[in-house]
Amino acid sequence: MTARLPRSRRRPDPALTWARSLRRRRPGLAAFVIERLGGLYGVPAPAQRLDPVSELVLTILSQNTADLNSERAFEALRVAWPSGGPVTTHRVVGPDGTEAPPEGWGGVGLAPGAPPNWSAVEDADIGALIEVIRIGGLANQKGPRIQSALRTIRERSGGYDLGFLAALPPRDARDWLVAIPGIGRKTASIVLLFCFGMPLMPVDTHVERVSRRIGLAPPKAGPDEQHEIYAHLLAADQFYAAHVLLIQHGRRTCDARRPACDRCPIAPRCRFFDPKAE
Ligand code: SF4
Question: Given the CA of residue 265, which atom of ligand 1 is nearest to it?
Answer without folding.
Answer: 6
